[in-house]
Amino acid sequence: MxxxxxxxxxxxxxxAEWEAERAALESEAERLRLARVDLRTRxxxxxxxxxxxxxxxxxxxxxxxxxPAAVGADWVAVPDAGGRxxxxxxxxAILAIRCSHGDLLRSARPSxxxxxxxxxxxxxxxxxxxxxxxxGVTIGLTGGxxxxxxxxxxxxxIDRVGADHLDLALHDAGSPRRAAEVRGYxxxxxxxxxxxxxxxxxxxxxx
Length: 207
What we know:
Layout: H1 3-35, H2 39-49, E1 54-58, E2 63-66, E3 70-71, E4 75-79, E5 85-90, E6 94-98, H3 101-106, H4 123-133, E7 136-141, E8 153-161, E9 165-170, E10 184-189, E11 193-199
Antiparallel strand pairs: 1-2, 1-6, 3-4, 4-5, 5-11, 7-8, 7-11, 8-9, 9-10
């Protein structure tokens, strides 16, 4: 009997078992890592690595198309293709995200980057900044049955933002907030906001 062949076979078998065990451990570790990944992290991956645009389907029936530019603590910012408008979207209002399979996989990659300050900015804090700047906005509300449901789209200026709501002075889009131009007021729970849109003409820096 050729003992050297016998020992070679044993070594090959042991190496194969070790490789299978290592692969199983790596696969289990990856499953455990993915189990801890939240939607905000996946959106951060799209900001970082996406090669194309995405479509966000929202709770009011609207679809926002573009490449995510920044992710806050509980919201994402998406400029349109021409950079003319910026939509701030609370994560809770996102029903689905359409993107390529490659971008889908890239968004799940582990990130070594440090947590940015923007990642700790809440939706309410971002809206308070818009109120401080007196920026005109258009706001879409959840609960609409179709995109053209104009009763669910309000234009005006945010006067103030509380812990879980905002006060909106209603006036024509693109017009400054003047007392004579205000048609009324709305107190809006933040949980009912599907998106807040800002025009580039408002002078707000792009994130």
